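Hi Y.,

Following your request, here is the sequence exactly as I used it, all 512 residues.
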Amino acid sequence: MADLERVRKRYTSSAPEAHVDVLIVGAGLSGIGAAWHLQRHCPDRSYAILEGRPAIGGTWDLFRYPGIRSDSDMYTLGYSFEPWTDSKAIADGPTILNYVNRVADKYDIRRHIGFQHHVTRADFDSERALWTVEATRKDTDETVTFTCNWLHMCSGYYNYREAYLPDFPGTDRFKGRFFHAQFWPEDLEIGGKTVVVIGSGATAVTIVPEMAKAGAQVIMLQRSPTYMISRPAIDKLANRLRKLLGDKASYGLIRWRNVLVQQFYFQLARKRPEYMKQFLRKELLKELPPGYEVDRHFKPTYNPWDQRLCLVPDADLFGCIREGTVEVVTDTIETFTEDGVRLASGRELVADVVVAATGLKLQLLSDVQFTVDGATKKLGDTMTYKGMMFGDVPNLSYSFGYTNASWTLKADLTAGYLCRLLNHMKATNTQVAVPRREADVREVPFLDFTSGYVQRALEILPKQGDRAPWKLHQNYARDMASLKLGKIEDGVMEFRRTAVAAPARSLTKENA
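Below is the corresponding structure, written out as tokens. Let me know if you'd prefer a different format.
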């Protein structure tokens, strides 16, 4: 974790302005990217970023568990405007965090950020086309107020303060250490110890081999298997092309190659799931020891891409299984004991440390309370427009990435469309933009994903529609056509002028 701490301590910022044209909430990958787009495509618009944490990076600043890394390649997780130049395509957390900070400094974004500002409320005044946003300053516990004409939420999709932790019986009896991976203790020593990691998702698949490399004997305890696939952490072709063509040209080529390859396999999984199952199984057989119970530990009950595939860089997890430093156990927990975990099969897993990698707890737009003209707006009851706005909610957009590809691909398109929208409003002298929900559009769930963290949150998520522009395609090429090239005046988005002017731009810092 020393490298991560060095990255975090390098950066500071000034306070944000009290009124801006656009207020961004969140200074992670999405927020920093949105700021770049505003500076590039709407240079006459003022903006500020409010960030609840004391540093840039969001997820990449929050998570501290061993081996924290991307589960997408950095040629698609990186920004479209800033080439990824590190040799590793599957990057570790400190390297990603450094990249985001470098972008913020290169484009002079940091001075627009107010750290430790946790947004709690936002009210829209239709007559003035004005959001009034309240935030709590974590360093002083003050409530501060900002105003803006447009509010763009880049706060991610899960709760930073609370993770999903099942109520396992008997945890109070366990004499060892037990914690959730989202809140990794800084003083943990694992060399020579036996560790049980509960879970089989991306977090568990990252933690398990890293702890084995650090000298622990690790058991990955899973209730049910997850589809996994290995790929090299270093993209040799990308590195060769960078030497031949330079950073920018090679980045664009590799980015599009990776987008198309990913979409090919996703569509193949949707159209021919049995073929994809056999393909993934054959790849696993190449990596696991002869005679290994592949169908017991790596054969899920669902189809590929009904949940996100787990990426195993350089087959590190499988290497640890071959070496005997990692054991995969597929069973359910009956109870914790003083010495470990007793399973439904009767087996007891004796452990010094038990780590719950049991998933995230989703929340919608950081649980901010939204009101329009004083009336509460429950965004979970709305329908999402182009995957970035809400039906009948004015001047509010949000960034929500792909579930089947890199988050930043969609965040980049969203920010670009927002700039197109703002420039259209300026050209037409309109101050309010609101997508009006069509009565005959049928509601369907926001995400077609069976992952537990999604299913647990369906009630708080908005709905999507059964046709455009209310439908989420989870397809970069289709979204590019819609968001980058599609019409702004689409018959659904309503534009309106206001009679009352918004406040003049303020340069004071008094309530920041």
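The longest strand covers residues 143-153.

Thanks again,
Q.
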